[in-house]
Predict the structure.
Amino acid sequence: MGNYLTKIRQAIDSYTQVERKIAENILSDPKKFIRMSITDFANECGVSEASVVRFCKSIGLKGYQEFKIAISLDIANAEEKKVIHEKITEDDSIDDIVTKISNYNISAIQDSLKVLDYYELERAIDFICESRRIILFGIGASAIVAMDAQHKFARINIDTVFYQDSHMQITMAANAKPDDVVIGISNSGRTQEILKCMKLSKENGAKTVCITQYGNSPITEYSDVKLFTAAVETNLRSGAMASRIAQLNLIDLIFVGTCCRNLDSAINSITKTREVLKDTRF
């Protein structure tokens, strides 16, 4: 699928100490990396050549030479289209703020598409189409994304449950059934309440889907389907805002994919809800 620099950057916090040395060396100067032999690169990282080969295979490549080619392509693609990442400062004008925040959001969506597994997306849609109902879990900013999903799926007459209260979410997880699909949303993948909900749901036989930042995190252990977004590291929580935008975009992809499985029924339900809500607008 390519985009290995993005994947390495997103997963770096989940790497072992040896893997992190390799990753940091590559990310610090990708152009230098592609000019180095495996021996020179291993020596620079302070690891064995075997560790470098294992790292290559862990991200889905056959070996070092294929890895260098993949990184070369990533560099070429990045130079074709570059989004500037700049921190917000107190001296920024409103024009600066508009440009920077918009770039963060655009970049979050673009980078998330680079780490999105289309097969996993199809499986999530399959689960929804085959399920009795959707149960959503999300705390804090992720609760906003869960609420958006609840609103969307309700419009196409799919039974969807979401409670903002974390105790109610745990209660729903404890009572999840094998014909339910649960979707746990956690950017960090480490929110304790969401982990408990996902674990309980899986133990009860429900199909489990997570939406989380790319990399290995505890929530993936309890997820049948793993849907990843990419993070944008910035200040003033603009990174957190961008991650929410990426999550919302992913919900849209799941929703539209579900609609397309039974388009006539979806259009009929949306039309019906639009008509009944028409009188509420002046």
User: Anything to note?
Assistant: Strands lie at 133-138, 160-161, 180-185, 207-213, 225-229. DSSP finds 13 helices and five strands in the chain.
